[in-house]
Amino acid sequence: MRVFRHWETWECVPAGMYESAPPVGIDTERARALYAEFLGDVARFARAMQRVFDEWPVSCEHFLSNDKINRIAWLGQSAMCIERAIPSTSRGGFKLLSDQKQREANAIAEIYLNHWLTTVESGLQWPGTLPTRRKLTPGVRSRVREYERQWRARGYAEGLPDEVPVVLMRDNLAPSHKALALAILRNDVTGQSLGFTPRPSRYYGILKRLELEGRGGRRSRWPNGF
Q: What is the C-alpha to C-alpha distance for residues 50 and 14, in angstroms, rounded to an integer?
């Protein structure tokens, strides 16, 4: 449901979100560079979005309930403003990121946005735990839940870290929100990048049997698949 709040109640205005120039001592070029550096740091970006939800509830209601605007961009600009007081006019720094970093930043923001929408619609307060997307395919959604459940049972009961060293993430030695975001970007339904083993498909077995029978009339050893 669309929520309207008077502009004088928006916390983002006195914070400098809509100023026409960066803070004193920071020129336009430097502001854009800082913007790119900030968005490229997944853990820092996630913490700043948490602050936006916690400290700017009225602004969030007004802007995030409006599906006619680019809410992903608004979250990124708000997070930068609350972190460094750099206004949205420096948003061009996003284009300084590599394509991969842009996708990662967008994925993290989308995860947080969809969790905000979910908690608002359910009447809950922001819980401070791993956000999950509402529009995930059933397969990916189930893998996200299983990933959380398994790692919480392995010593991360207080929640998953936003980011871990690349080698730990690559070898699935430790969990992270970033690993989840990258799996979502890849539409990794089987969860292989998260350490899951793909389940054998019975349909593959059926098709393979038909293929073998078509070649020489031989029957497969696996009539019901794997």
A: 19
Cα dist from 186 to 104, 109, 162, 182, 194, whole Å: 11, 16, 18, 6, 11
CB neighbours of 98 closer than 8 A, spacing ≥ 6?
none
What integer is the mean pLDDT of 192-212? Answer: 66
Q: Is 112 exposed, middle or buried (0-12, 13-18, 19+ CB in 10 A)?
A: buried
Is 103 within 8 Å of 185 (Cβ atoms)?
Answer: yes
Domain ranges of the chain: 1-133, 136-195, 199-226
Contact between residue 170 and residue 186 where contact means Cβ atoms under 8 Å apart: no
Inter-CA distances, 115 with 47, 71, 130, 132, Å = 15, 13, 9, 6
pTM for the model: 0.59
Give pLDDT, residue 125.
46
Reading phi first (left if > 0) and then psi (alpha if -120 to 50, else beta), residue 164 is in beta
Categorize the per-residue pLDDT at 225 as very low, low, confident or very high, splitting at 50, 70 and 90.
Answer: very low
